[in-house]
Amino acid sequence: MAIYLFFDEAGNLDFNPSGSKWYVFGVLSTPDPGPLSHALTTLRYELMGEREGLVLERFHASEDRQAVRDRVFESLLNVGDFEYDAVVIEKRKTHWSIQEPLKFYPKFAEVLLQYVFHRHAEDGEPLILVTDQLPLNRKRKSLEKAFRLF
């Protein structure tokens, strides 16, 4: 049986005062993504059927209303059978020499992925890494660089 790893990040790569204060890399690990997928799909249909008829193409914490985010977390907690690991970086404390996205992204993504991969290596199960499609070519190249290290 495989272990499914869902990799995502939050924050922006702008290191100016107008940028986000934090950058977070996270990995949700589960041996069976079916129940999580089912719970989130069910929630999407529930939101469509409610008074507001909210149609969501996907859930996105930075864009969704707080009430939607609360229901997503409630759905995840009700399903269980997953682990979540994260690396949280306070960007203003990041040395200037690694603030370039092609250096920053791989460095901190690698820290998290090495930790998660090492923990699951004991299981001897194949690891399937799932990522969101990155909209920026620059970010995509940074992520590909991080993943090639493994």
Could you describe the 3D structure shown?
The chain is of the alpha+beta class and 150 residues long. The chain has helices at 34-49, 66-79, 101-121, 137-148, and strands spanning 3-10, 22-30, 83-90, 127-131. The chain has a four-stranded mixed beta sheet with strand order 3-2-1-4, with helices on one face. The two termini are 21 Å apart.
Q: Can you count the beta strands?
A: 4
Shape: globular
The helix fraction, in percent, is 40-55%
Structural class: alpha+beta
How are helices and strands ordered from N to C? EEHHEHEH
Helix run count: 4
Distance between the termini: 21 Å
Poorly predicted regions are: none
Strand order of the largest sheet: 3-2-1-4
* Quaternary organisation: single chain
Quote the beta fraction: 15-25%
Rg of Cα set: 17 Å
The largest sheet is: 4 strands, mixed
Average pLDDT figure: 84
Topology:
Blueprint: E1 3-10, E2 22-30, H1 34-49, H2 66-79, E3 83-90, H3 101-121, E4 127-131, H4 137-148
Parallel strand pairs: 1-4
Antiparallel strand pairs: 1-2, 2-3
